[in-house]
Structure prediction request, 145 residues.
Amino acid sequence: MSEDEKCKAAEALRDAIVDADSDTDEASEALRDALVDADTDDITPAFRDALHSIFDSLDVDKDGILNTKELHSLAQICNGEDFADDELEQIFEFHECQGEGDEKGLTKEGLVDMFFVQAGARPEDVWADLRALGFDESLQRKSKD
Prediction:
């Protein structure tokens, strides 16, 4: 993709993000397309890279999983409050985890899968989370001036 094409794609995505409040199918589709490849129905490489970066920054103890405390950090950044107990149970039940009991945590691929599922259903929520986590419309971390 040429630089001109990248700029046009970023502009279209920026417009879709602005228009997401109108909740149109077209805006939602544009938001989803930056996250999920329409041809393969798989996560885009840029989105996967962003999620790996998010995981690495949240995995404070560097044990390769996001424990309950680290997941609550994610929820605090994105939503301003901790996950409810039932939300944590669903995360641990439906997405790849390692460990047992208090040592159980979400793996990197589990986090990717969690966001992939959300991107299919509510891409505008994923973009709100990504912005809260410091990413721009090209899925790059914004520089801290």
In short: The helical segments are 3-19, 25-33, 45-58, 68-79, 85-94, 108-121, 123-132. Confidence is low (pLDDT under 50) at residues 5-10. Residues 36 and 42 are 5 Å apart (CA to CA).
